[in-house]
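Per your request, structure below.
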């Protein structure tokens, strides 16, 4: 993931196209594990990973970041495309859980996107996406927030 992220970032910088990092996690995942057991929790993680894989292409990579956090890294996607993919991901999760014995679950999604400049690094985008994710969590979860600069978040 790190290697590909650096490649995407360098290409976005040199072509002056957008680069975005989306951090997402499963809302109330601990409650899912505590209520249904860790095997079901593992199946929920797999469900999310499978849904995310439908969004991957030559300009998008998906990976598990840790625990119940996942990451999407993209180059050349507009805000409209990013938000449409976020909606599509939510719809896929709903569809998959309704067609299975899995408990329904929601996700929170924080997206940081802009054209990289000479001062920025992949870490800046990851940090921005993480801050956007936690802003979603603080607002009640099951939300998507796209920002272009850390100051876009109200303190």
């Amino acid at each position: 993931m790190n290697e590909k992220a650096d490649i995407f970032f360098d290409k976005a910088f040199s072509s002056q196209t957008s680069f975005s990092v989306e951090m997402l996690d499963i809302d109330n995942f601990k409650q899912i594990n505590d209520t249904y057991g860790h095997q079901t929790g593992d199946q929920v993680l797999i469900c999310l990973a499978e849904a995310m894989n439908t969004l991957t292409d030559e300009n998008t990579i998906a990976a598990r970041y840790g625990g119940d956090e996942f990451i999407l890294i993209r180059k050349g996607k507009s805000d409209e495309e990013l938000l449409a993919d976020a909606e599509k991901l939510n719809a896929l999760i709903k569809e998959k859980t309704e067609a299975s014995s899995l408990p329904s679950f929601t996700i929170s999604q924080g997206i940081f996107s802009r054209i990289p400049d000479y001062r920025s690094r992949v870490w800046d985008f990851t940090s921005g996406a993480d801050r956007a994710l936690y802003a979603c969590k603080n607002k009640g979860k099951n939300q998507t927030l796209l920002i272009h600069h850390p100051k876009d978040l109200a303190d």
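The chain has a mean pLDDT of 93.

Regards,
D.
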